[in-house]
Amino acid sequence: PWPINWDCNASIGAERRTWDEATMLDDCSNIATPTLILHGAQDPRPPSAIERLAQTIHHAELHVVDEVGHTPWLERPGVVVPLLRAWLERLDLLTAHAT
Description:
The chain is an alpha+beta fold. It is built from six helices and two strands; from the N terminus they run ααβαβααα. It has helices at 6-16, 21-29, 47-56, 72-75, 77-90, 93-97; strands spanning 35-40, 60-65. A two-stranded parallel ribbon has the order 1-2. Helix 3 (47-56) links the parallel strand 1 (35-40) and strand 2. The radius of gyration is 16 Å and the shape is globular. The protein starts with 5 loop residues before the first helix and ends with a helix. The relative contact order is 0.13.
């Protein structure tokens, strides 16, 4: 339902081809912040890349959301919001800010 911005995608694709994957993964392995990764089961990005990212980032949690593509928070907010809320509660972020 969202139009593709071909110019933007071409620009990002050209830049991405200059990135060194090993360096990017090494940089990601230094992320110390708990990280939630949401991936739509029908997203055009390969699941193996997302799984590798989740394995690389320490304290990362991966959730694959069924029946959605690239924007699970827009396509299935009724599934994503409870996932996000539960993740934040596990981190005590919601309860710490609720007072």
